[in-house]
Design goal:
Shape of chain B: elongated
Order of helices and strands of chain B: EEEHEEEHHHEHEHEEHEHEEHEH
CATH topology of the largest domain in chain B: Rossmann fold
Number of helices of chain A: 12
CATH architecture of the largest domain in chain B: 3-Layer(aba) Sandwich
Shape of chain A: globular
Distance between the termini of chain A: 22 Å
Number of domains of chain B: 2
Number of domains of chain A: 1
Order of helices and strands of chain A: HHHHHHHHHHHH
Strand content of chain B: 25-35%
Largest interface: A-B, 25 and 30 residues
Number of strands of chain B: 14
Number of helices of chain B: 10
Structural class of chain A: mainly alpha
Number of strands of chain A: 0
Largest sheet of chain A: none
Largest sheet of chain B: 6 strands, mixed
Strand order of the largest sheet of chain B: 6-7-8-3-9-10
Helix content of chain B: 25-40%
Oligomer: heterodimer
CATH class of the largest domain in chain B: Alpha Beta
CATH superfamily of the largest domain in chain B: P-loop containing nucleotide triphosphate hydrolases
Structural class of chain B: alpha/beta
Chain lengths: 254, 295
């Protein structure tokens, strides 16, 4: 396992995309800060300048290419027989992308602290009470932590797609479609007001977790689930997608 | 060392390898030959546990299965195309798999890759990629190396270099399973030959024994070709026919003479002819196809 992890970190470390992405994240965060309005500082600080959406976008691209690069470079055969078994290959890739996910969230927090210092928007102290009667710093940390779980759910889904489809472009397109239109699909399903008690547990609904945390009143009407229920659903689907993804990978022949 | 027993490999529901059984011992260089689509690459992938199969594959008494590759810890392979990441340099591609940097450096020198090893692999030619793929297979002093068409895209100097390297590793006890369409090249290194056709192993012999048994064939000319063909088919005699001249196996010549005599067919010529390795392989494949038609 240790050697497989080393190999995956080595590859991630040597891809240009890995190092360009934080820069892209920073630019998108600055653009969000400029475009969202001078008086929305509290929302920007609590959501790390909308970093959850930008990180999701980056992870879709990097996560989708994690498996497809092996297929496209004919490296999957070597990767498999050089490891002890398929589960190690699958888990190593998953752990490495999860680590990258954590790293991006950490960077987003640091960028937020920096952007707040240079005052793109109205300066607000971190101790100001905001969401759930908690200080801003706590809102930011909790939003980031919850978003780590949402993005982990998305990574599991991307891995599942990657094991089903070898083509990189299709996996990226499909994942983006799922991530950015998932909430609308779910909202449409629930708008019919039939079988709401069952349909509210559809996996598309789980993409609302982060947004609902920082904008409860708007998103509760869409998701029909409490924060706690969304969290449980996200964790359950993450586990399910990881297991199903692995079973597909296990049965796949190269 | 490697024991393959009654292996059947499936792609979907189609059986690609049929009841393959053979052994490879330390230091053996086994040539795996056969026509396109015979199942050479599939057999190699099966040994690496990368296909759906039944039967038994053991390396040093440890089983290889579809999901368990522990037995392959000391195996190197180059299957179909070299496994190279274009965003890494040649050296980084090697470092990704290497346990010992000195081993890495030695292979770079031996395969003459020093000039370009620090460049990104996306700019490599087919031959450069192939050499890098061979180097990856030879990393970490493997016990068994599986090479699928290793001479693809290599120039003369590189081909000689790779051949010397194979001999050098085999002398130290590394076993090789090599497939190649360039039979003359394979003939220069292999000590054992496995001939496969339509997923079935039809020959598995040491090369010396193979050449001894199959090196000679007989040329036969009769006064009635049509009737001769009819009798050969009737008596299940394997042959190849070019114009009116038959090529037959030496083991059948007495039986042939008896058959022809009983049918009042007269011999015009019956003489031994020598064959090179390629001709022997083609003749064996033709014989196998003939047998299949008869059955």
């Amino acid at each position: 396992m240790a050697f497989s992890l080393y190999q995956e970190f080595y590859k991630l470390n040597h891809r240009k995309l890995t190092w360009i992405s934080p820069l892209v994240l920073l630019i998108l965060m600055i653009l969000t800060g400029i475009s969202i309005g001078y008086n929305e500082s509290k929302l920007l600080m609590a959501t790390c300048y909308n970093a959850p959406d930008w990180i999701m976008l980056i992870l879709v691209v990097i996560g989708s290419t994690t498996f497809s690069m092996e297929f496209q470079n004919n490296a999957i055969l070597t990767l498999l027989y050089k490891s002890h078994n398929k589960v190690i290959v699958y888990l190593s890739k998953y752990i490495v992308i999860l680590s990258y996910n954590l790293w991006l969230h950490l960077l987003a927090i640091l960028f937020t602290l920096g952007l707040n210092e240079i005052s793109i928007n109205q300066s607000v102290p971190w101790s100001t009470l905001y969401l759930y009667q908690q200080p801003l710093w706590e809102n930011m940390l909790k939003t980031s932590t919850i978003d780590v779980l949402t993005t982990t759910f998305i990574i599991s889904l991307i891995f599942l797609f990657s094991c089903l489809i070898n083509n990189n472009a299709i996996v990226i397109s499909f994942s983006l479609l799922m991530v950015f239109t998932g909430q609308f699909i779910s909202a449409n399903l629930l708008n019919s007001e039939k079988f709401t008690q069952i349909l509210r547990w559809n996996p598309f609904n789980m993409t609302n977790l982060t947004r609902q945390y920082y904008n409860y009143t708007t998103y509760f009407d869409t998701s029909h689930l409490l924060n706690q229920q969304l969290l449980q659903g996200t964790l359950s689907y993450t586990l399910l997608f990881v297991i199903v993804g692995y079973l597909i990978f296990r049965k796949k022949h190269f | 060392m490697l024991v393959v027993q009654n292996i059947n490999t499936y792609i979907g529901r189609k059986k690609i390898i049929k009841d393959a059984t053979f052994k490879i011992h330390p230091g053996n260089i086994t040539g795996l030959i056969g026509p396109n689509g015979a199942g050479k690459t599939t057999l190699m992938k099966t040994i690496l546990g990368l296909t759906k199969f039944d039967g038994q594959i053991q390396l040093n008494q440890i089983a290889v299965t579809e999901n368990q590759y522990t037995a392959l810890a000391n195996v190197g392979a180059l299957i179909e195309h070299p496994a190279i990441y274009p965003f890494l340099t040649g050296k980084q591609n090697l470092a990704l798999y290497a346990h010992d940097p000195d081993d890495c450096q030695r292979l770079i020198s031996q395969l003459n890759m020093t000039k370009y090893i620090n460049e990104h692999a996306k700019g490599y030619s087919l031959g450069m990629k192939q050499k890098l793929g061979i180097a990856i297979a030879l990393l970490n002093n493997p016990e068994l190396v599986i090479l699928d068409e290793p001479m693809n895209g290599l120039d003369v100097e590189s081909t000689i270099g790779v051949r010397q390297l194979i001999h050098q590793y085999a002398d130290k006890g590394t076993a090789f399973l090599i497939s190649s369409h360039i039979l003359s090249e394979l003939q220069k290194v292999m000590t054992q030959v496995i001939l496969i056709n339509r997923g079935q192993i039809i020959v598995d012999q040491p090369i010396a024994e193979f050449e001894h048994l199959h090196h000679q064939t007989y040329k036969l000319l009769t006064d009635d070709t049509r009737l001769t063909v009819k009798n050969f088919i009737k008596h299940h005699i394997c042959y190849t026919l070019n114009n009116d001249t038959f090529q037959v196996n030496p083991k059948n010549i007495f039986e042939i003479q008896d058959i022809l005599s009983s049918q009042n067919i007269h011999l015009k010529e019956l003489a031994p002819i020598s064959c090179n390795f390629e001709q022997i392989v083609i003749q064996l494949l033709n014989q196998e196809r003939g047998n299949r038609h008869d059955n």
